[in-house]
Amino acid sequence: MRLVPFISKTVVLGLAIVLLSGCSRDPNVRKQKYLESGQRYFEKGKYGEAVIQFSNALQVDPKFPDAHYHLAQAYLKLQQWSPAYQELQRTLQFQPDNFSAHLDLANLLIGGGDLVQAQEHTDYIRQKDPNNPEVHAAIANLLAAKQNVPGAILEIQKAITQSPGRWELYQNLAILQLKSDQPDAAEASFNKAAELNPKAADVQMSLGSFYESHQRMLDAQKHFEQAIADDSSNPAPRAALAQLYLGMGKKDQAEELLKDVKSEYPENSNGYRMLGDFYFAAGDLDKALTEYAVVHKQHSKDSQVKKNYIQLLILKDRLDEARTLDNEILKANPSDVDALIYRGQICNDGGDSNGAIRALQSAIQNQPGNGVAHYHLGIAFDRTGNLQRAEGEWRDAARLRPDLVEAHRALAEAALRTGDMPVLDHEATQIIALQPNLPEAYAMRALANINLKQFGQAEQDARKAIDLGPQNPAGYLQMASLRFVQQQYGEATRLYRLALDRDASSSDALGGLINSYLALNAPDKAADAARAQIEKVPNSSSFYDLLGTLMLHSTQDKNAIEAAFQKAIELDKSNVDALMKLGQVQVASGEIDSAIATYQNSLKENPRDPRVYILAGELFESKRDLTNAGTMYQKALEISPQNGLASNNLACVILETGGSLDVALSLAQTARRGMPDSPNAADTLGWIMYQKGAYKAAADLMQESLRLADKSGAPEDAEVHYHLGMAYQKLNQPRLAKQQLERVLKVNPNYVHAAEVREQLEQLKS
User: Fold this and answer.
1) What mean pLDDT is predicted for residues 381-398?
2) CA R_g for the chain
3) Are 309 and 338 in contact (CB under 8 A)?
4) Distance (Å, rounded) from C-alpha 430 to C-alpha 326?
5) Choosing a second label site near 729 at 20 to 30 A (CA), which of 83, 464, 567, 673?
6) Cα 437-506-533 angle, rounded to 5 deg
7) What is the pLDDT of residue 5?
8) Are 698 and 723 in contact (CB under 8 A)?
9) Which residues, 6+ apart, have CB-to-CB distance to 308 below 8 Å?
10) d(Cα 313, Cα 636) in Å, to the nearest integer?
């Protein structure tokens, strides 16, 4: 027999170590081991641990598509939508034909409201596998998000035909039937899903939610408890039961349940975050912040905990702490969309609008369909005075996230500022669709319809607001405004008082009450009402502003008027309305320097308000201090680049000081675009065209200026007649030139260029 050479155990052991270490250095083996480990954690519901292992695999090979896809699945389970989106995108970057990634991304984008990108992915999966029930389900979700519920129901029914044993499809059908106002059919579909899978916690949750929405609280409780029994590893059913307790007025019971959840799921992110999220949903930000401080300390590596904690810190104006944590996220991942949005919020709240714009534009560059980023970018633009850009961003936000109430509110407030009542009516209707029990939304729509003279609809909405919120002033305020417009001043005073009873600090209600008394020719009652309300709310800047405004029209006591406005400013240094009126009182008294000082002091507290710079500029201009006037207008334009009034005034200053005609022309064109109904803007642009030799265009603009002035009832301006006369003279139309120049002297015999006008008239005679 053949002898086998003797090999010592030491040699064998050494050989094994060499072989093992050789395997551990193989990156393909290492990444696969991390992937398999992550999958095992995932199957056990330990999604946080799975994230770590999948991330380890990607440390070995950043282009490993399977790891990117599985990491996305773990993030989806953790409801961390932004990183899930990023990982699905990376999956497709390295594996463009990954059908499941396209499907998951389509559903994620639909949930996030980015329907344009979602359509691209549903088109792809429909082309690849048109008979796949999951494809029909995704298309149904997309159609439902587009408000095409009948089409969505047809798609989900196709899916059921292809796969009649899948309970999830019946659940989706039930949800769509609810949207289509078919509650009985929805209940039957939910029960069919439960019949197909009696242990499906999701179905029990859906049934519980269905019964809760129909006020069948005990039935809801039964199904939530069944869901808990069916899936003890999932904290979500307990969250639903806690929310039910909250709706039943059992807040303490809900809180105790979620405290138990936290202890039962110490390693489950959804579990240990639940109590803090509950406090947030209940509006108790202090408790939410305290809870998240503890959870963040215990789970500092949980990115969702850190992000939620940052959001709470922002809401509580603890910006330095929020910034520190946000910087930690961005240091690890400079492209993290959520963190960039938080940076934008922090900059916005800290007064750094330009920093906010940079951060939010970066977020949108990384994720163009993020409606929340567009919403906050709109806020940043609004704070720079660029309302046009702000509205554009808010419209994008509402388009991408139709359910984002804040975007619709911002658009409504913008419409209110600009007086665009049809838009206000539209946005209020959108808010009502999203929050049908919100009294303020009906009051907002009532206000729009009052201005649109749709009094029947306005009354209906005001009554609905009162019915929904009998202790809310909003409905009473708009009903009072309606009665005021209908000249029922006595009833208006009663309703304004009811609004003040519910909100003693409402300046809108007090202002309406004052106006109603003035309409009744009772200025003393108006003053008494103002003083009585000031006694109730002595620290209201707006009340002193209203009192000062009232006295402007009812008394000659300059000292008393100034005292009211100064008190308003003392209470709120950002009350620009009171500051402007105080300056106007000083100007009316011939105290130009005092008014300039008032505005300059105001700028120390309100350095970002272009109105104050413009007012100061106009006063400098009245003193012929054109250098300082130009500086003020330039600062206004730095804050609000499209400001028509500042553009027009600076163009005039440039003309008077012999500056660049091209710069003046650009400014005048901006003014004309922003103030198409302004006679001054038309005249300024016309005079610049004259200076540039375009006499026909100049004459047309000056004629337009005269027409606009006549239409608005503004007094004739000798300057415009002078400019038009000069244009006609250049056009060799002496008769028309003579008419306009003669009109100059009739309108204002002391016109500053009167001597030149007379000289021109003499030349025309010869």
Assistant:
1) 90
2) 34
3) no
4) 33
5) 673
6) 145
7) 33
8) yes
9) 273, 276, 277, 292
10) 33
Q: How many residues are recorded in the chain?
A: 766
pTM over 0.85: no
- Helix then strand then coil, in percent of the chain rounded to 5, is 80, 0, 20
pLDDT class of 80 with cuts at 50, 70, 90: confident
Task: Tokens for 16, please give them.
Answer: 């094994």
With tokens 């998000």, the residue in question is 145
Integer angstrom CA distances of residue 464 from 437, 447, 458, 468, 764: 9, 13, 10, 6, 70
Q: What is the pLDDT of residue 25?
A: 63
Helix axes 679-691, 695-712, angle to 10 degrees: 170
Q: How far apart (Å, rounded) are the C-alpha atoms in residues 4 and 11?
A: 15
Residues contacting 388, CB < 8 A, separation 6+: 642
Contact 387, 414 (CB under 8 A): yes
**Interatomic CA distance for residues 374 and 358, integer angstroms:** 12
- Per-residue pLDDT band for 29 (boundaries 50, 70, 90) equals confident
Computed from CA positions of residues 307, 311, 314, 316, in that sequence, does the dihedral angle turn out positive or negative? negative
Rounded to whole angstroms, the Cα distance separating 326 from 312 reads 12
Is the model's pLDDT at 2 over the cut of 70?
A: no
Percent of the chain topping pLDDT 90: 59
Query: Does 3 score more than 50 pLDDT?
Result: no
Question: What does the alpha-carbon distance between residue 220 and residue 213 come to, in Å, rounded to a whole number?
Answer: 9
Domains and CATH numbers, the chain: 198-316 (1.25.40.10), 317-404 (1.25.40.10)
d(CA 420, CA 426) in angstroms, rounded, equals 10
Question: For 139-188, what is each residue's pLDDT tens digit?
Answer: 888 898 888 989 889 988 998 898 898 888 888 888 888 888 898 998 89
Q: Please say whether the beta carbons of 499 and 506 come within 8 A.
A: yes
> What 3 state SS string does 27-83 have?
HHHHHHHHHHHHHHHHHCCCHHHHHHHHHHHHHHCCCCHHHHHHHHHHHHHCCCHHH
What are the structure tokens assigned to 372, written together? 């929340």
For residues 566 and 220, give the distance between their C-alpha atoms in angstroms, rounded to a whole number. 59
Contact status, residue 346 vs residue 326, Cβ threshold 8 Å: yes
Tokens of 450: 């009052």
